[in-house]
Specification:
Layout: E1 2-5, E2 25-28, E3 31-34, E4 79-82, E5 86-90, E6 92-93, E7 104-105, E8 111-119, E9 135-141, E10 143-145, E11 152-153, H1 155-159, E12 164-167, E13 175-185, E14 192-203, E15 222-226, E16 229-232, E17 239-242, E18 248-250
């Protein structure tokens, strides 16, 4: 469980205007995949569900699952990946965006990053109920050092232009999956969630899937226990790697 209290110390921090957004492209098993944000007008197809620049601020918002509006591309497809390999998400964009009128990088250095996966039926992920309890945590990254308000968060690396690497479970059963990854901005208060979802076709020799008790729903996974405090649970981890050390939990131990 990763506990994140939205402290008043962040009220004095300067908000970064128009610094919201999501993953612009992905590198998966050596292939590059373009994202699907709403002003890209991507007509070629995408593995990514559509999103816009605004964050989700309500924990009961159905867009907490895959962003606004979270629908698959008309020509959606799946990125092949071998179980255990890494999905690399890039949060920078060198071309001027219509929405913000300039080149862009994700502008929030304070907050947690988490990733979940959901298994889909053989026919695919396009019609899966994103708000059902289908999600299991595979990765998280939070405060690496220092105090909560002035410390070094893993998100700062992305803020400074680094790519985000998300490991997939090596024991995962082959099949179609949705990978949901999110940035939880705690800089400006109230908290803002920026989720993205992509479709993967997993191969490999694994045969594992999480049990029902390891699955969570969005909304529903996160509890607001106080007006300015959130307990980010995400359910009992089936598998995840904590950024900043080699600690692993779950099936891949």
């Amino acid at each position: 469980m990763l506990r994140l209290a939205v402290a008043s110390a962040f009220a004095s921090l300067l908000a970064v205007a128009n610094a919201h957004g999501g993953a612009m492209h992905y590198i998966i098993d050596g292939e590059v995949y373009t994202g699907n944000w709403d002003d890209l007008h991507n007509t070629e197809g995408s593995i990514q569900r559509q999103w816009n620049w605004g964050g989700v601020t309500k924990l009961n918002d159905p867009y907490l699952a895959c962003g606004n509006n979270g629908v698959p591309h008309t020509n959606s497809y799946y990125a092949p990946i071998v179980a255990g390999n890494t999905v690399t998400a890039n949060y920078s964009f060198d071309t001027v965006s219509e929405s913000i009128g300039r080149a862009w990088t994700f502008g929030h250095p304070y907050g947690a990053m988490l990733a979940y996966m959901a298994a889909c039926p053989e026919e695919g992920c396009e019609r899966v109920d994103l708000n059902a309890p289908i999600w299991f945590k595979v990765w998280e990254a939070g405060l690496l050092s220092g105090t909560w308000a002035k410390g070094y968060w893993a998100m700062k690396d992305v803020f400074e232009g680094a790519e985000l690497d998300i490991s997939t479970p090596t024991s995962l059963k082959p099949g179609k999956y949705i990978l949901r990854h999110e940035m939880l901005n705690l800089q400006t208060g109230p908290a803002q969630w920026f989720p993205n979802c992509i479709q993967l076709e997993v191969s490999g020799s694994g045969d594992s899937l999480p049990s029902a008790e390891d699955l969570v729903a969005f909304p529903g996974a996160y509890d607001k226990d106080e007006e300015k405090s959130f307990t980010v649970k995400g359910g009992s981890p089936w598998f995840y790697v904590t950024h900043g050390n080699d600690t692993k939990f779950g099936k891949d131990d």
